[in-house]
Amino acid sequence: MMLVTDTITIQELENMSHHMFQKLVKAVVDIEENIMVVDGELHADQELLLLDRGSDQKNLWGINLHPEHFGTENFIEFDSMINLRPSWGNKTCSVDNPEMRKRIIALVISKVTS
Q1: Could you tell me the pLDDT band of residue 22, with boundaries at 50, 70 and 90?
Q2: Is the four-CA dihedral 110, 35, 87, 66 of positive or negative sign?
Q3: Which helix (H) or strand (E) holds 108?
Q4: Domains in the chain: how many in total?
Q5: What pLDDT band is residue 20 in, cutting at 50, 70 and 90?
Q6: Which of 29, 12, 111 minimizes the C-alpha distance to 64?
Q7: DSSP strand E in 33-114: where?
């Protein structure tokens, strides 16, 4: 797993994606701390890393990055079991709130460079 506090290149993500059978990179973002963890086998492991360093769970969202779709709307996939939070209003494994999706997209765009 890699903590991204500054930036990561699309080439680095591409290299990581070869370890996964679907050529994706799992990531968890902290929308308040403006950081993300990439290259974990499970979103839950990435979430735990961020919780251990002080992140608040309500700010953590699991996503998948598809490096081959960099620059398109298919680059970020909003799908993770850690997103399932009915008591907080998120009733699916996606990110149901459109404003939250926009924040996640902006965070990822600020972290991934070509």
Answers
A1: confident
A2: positive
A3: helix 98-111
A4: 1
A5: confident
A6: 29
A7: 35-38, 60-65, 76-77, 112-113
What is the C-alpha separation between 61 and 43, in angstroms, rounded? 9
Q: Which of 2, 7, 111, 18 is nearest to 66 (CA)?
A: 18
pLDDT at residue 19, as a whole number: 85
- The torsion angles phi and psi of 8, rounded to 5 degrees, stand at -140, 145
Q: Which helix (H) or strand (E) holds 86?
A: none
| 3-class secondary structure, 83 | helix
Tokens of 64: 């998948």
Q: What is the DSSP string of 88-99?
A: GTB-SSS---HH
Tell me the C-alpha distance between 89 and 114, whole Å: 35
Domain extent at residue 76: 2-113
Structure tokens, 91? 């009733």
**Measured distance CA(51)–CA(58) in Å, rounded:** 10
